[in-house]
């Protein structure tokens, strides 16, 4: 007898492999939150966080899920969803059967895959008893920063899902399953920017909505003041009139503000019931917010949690260019690239480096050159030793041989390109922690055996060929520089 947890763990492995490392974000968002709950009569039941989530899986991953289930449970294996209902804390299963057999799934699933959804009598739409006739619409200052727009928020793999979810929320506040929308990610990766941007877009599309941005720290302070002035009722009522509430940095409440969290918990429930939209940001993933009140924490898991990752080199370059364009400043391309490749921690530092460089150059009347950038960055990142990445190595190797960076990805067998590709693989193996498989994938979608072969070839040539030895030495120095 197979155990459901093992079966699902195996499924996850297959899914992860199929999606590949470039879709790690997709994997984290749509598969990691799934909880296996039962395996009976060859039917695996998995629990998904919301109806929307289930629909998304159906629309985008049905083929993959079918194949995976078939691999694990054989041709008669079935998958059943249980959907966590939002109306109570208890799970109320909605079950949907997807036979893993059957014809090729197409988007026209109603025809091809029998779908049974038993909604029980547990209705998600709760009538709103709180709309009083003549209730005045509140006019408040939204506290939104007009510079943080969606248009200014550069899109990359690291933020695509969060950005798309944000856009969906702005179009349809409170009416998607992204409620609450939890944006999480490390410091300086754009949570606050994106949260403001979603608020601004919402106001643009729905001018009648009352949008409010507040930091968790401000909220706590307001609550403490309200308690002191004995007007917590007013405080709570004020928040209950908001249609679109953005609460930034909820991790600030960890291990403190129990009463504040309780007040927010009640406000949250109220707003959620009347389908007001709630956006919360956190620099920790929900799993690492253990020191928040458990009741509140459970609410955060109701909607969608989307993480913001570290931008890749291409996105970093795009962000720098956009900032420069906004400020009307010209900067040589190689300097931009130099900054982007050397500062890979977060966007805030990237911006900081850019601003320092501009300040340096204008204060000292110096031209912005690579040398100036180098001096500045040496000071800037002295303590944080730079991490060498595969794309950085690719860049150094391609620059050295004056090849376009895309050539590494191409399938060409031209000698000079093959050589550059092999050198890249060799240094990636030697100087990064990446596996052979990952290196292969990033160097033109090659398999691990090819990478291994490349490493051996370079090592051999390095010992036997003078010219090659020179290249290896030079490149190694440049990469470490
Ligand atoms: P967080 O709240 O996650 O700590 P912020 O939203 O304050 O980070 O972002 C730090 C800085 O980086 C801000 O100035 C923001 O405008 C900028 N930034 C972050 N991500 C992006 C992006 N994708 N495009 C443009 N600017 C960005
Ligand atoms: Mg922030």
Task: Give your account of this protein's structure.
The chain has 481 residues and is of the alpha/beta class. The protein has 4 domains: 4-129, GMP Synthetase, Chain A, domain 3 (2-Layer Sandwich); 160-307, 3-Layer(aba) Sandwich (Rossmann fold); 313-380, Helicase, Ruva Protein, domain 3; 390-480, DnaA protein, C-terminal DNA-binding domain (Chromosomal Replication Initiator Protein Dnaa, Chain: A), CATH 1.10.1750. 51% of the residues lie in helices and 10% in strands. It has 19 helices and 9 strands. It has helices at 4-19, 24-30, 51-73, 109-112, 160-171, 191-205, 216-228, 232-240, 258-273, 294-300, 313-327, 333-342, 347-363, 370-380, 390-401, 415-431, 436-442, 448-464, 466-480, and strands at residues 35-40, 43-48, 78-83, 96-99, 181-184, 211-215, 244-248, 277-282, 304-307. The strands form 2 sheets. A 5-stranded parallel β-sheet has the order 6-7-8-5-9, sandwiched between helices. Strands 1-2-3-4 form a 4-stranded mixed β-sheet, covered by helices on one side. Helix 1 (4-19) packs across helix 3, helix 16 crosses helix 18 (448-464) and helix 18 crosses helix 19 (466-480). The protein is flat. Mean pLDDT is 83; it is low at 86-137. Bound molecules: adenosine-5'-diphosphate and magnesium ion. Residues 191-192, 248-249 line the site of magnesium ion.
Q: Quick summary of this structure?
A:
The chain is built from 19 helices and 9 strands. By secondary structure, the chain is of the alpha/beta class. It has 4 domains: 4-129, DnaA, N-terminal domain (GMP Synthetase, Chain A, domain 3, 2-Layer Sandwich), CATH 3.30.300; 160-307, Rossmann fold, CATH 3.40.50.300; 313-380, Orthogonal Bundle (Helicase, Ruva Protein, domain 3), CATH 1.10.8.60; 390-480, DnaA protein, C-terminal DNA-binding domain (Chromosomal Replication Initiator Protein Dnaa, Chain: A), CATH 1.10.1750.10.
